[in-house]
Design brief:
The chain has 134 residues and is mostly helical. The protein contains five helices and no strands.
Amino acid sequence: MAKIIALLVMLLTSSTVQAQIVDTWAFSTQAQRQSAMKIAGELRCPQCQNQNLLESNAPVAVSMRREVFAMVEQGKNESEIMTFMTQRYGDFVQYNPPLKMQTGLLWVTPLLLLLAIIAIMWWVMRRQNRRSRR
């Protein structure tokens, strides 16, 4: 009976345990490490969209993070790495994409949403004022 219970416990616990990938990288200097972390923190995961490369464990983010770390080790600067990543993955990978025709929607959408919220609030308050007058 004890063997059956132990088997059931092992089956139940093994189905909920997930392995976490630990990404380790050794840098030559502390300055390179800080630079790599800064750059990876400024790039967005294309799969997760709301996480940077340091926060995401998606396969594409792990690959991009390793690419950034390797480029820093090779001595490339931040602008070279950002240019490379933007060419490869598009402007979307930058948290602050450049303002140009293709990224206009990324810059205008928050403003449009804010204006829509203000218009809806104005309309609701106006409607409530009309009802309260009656």
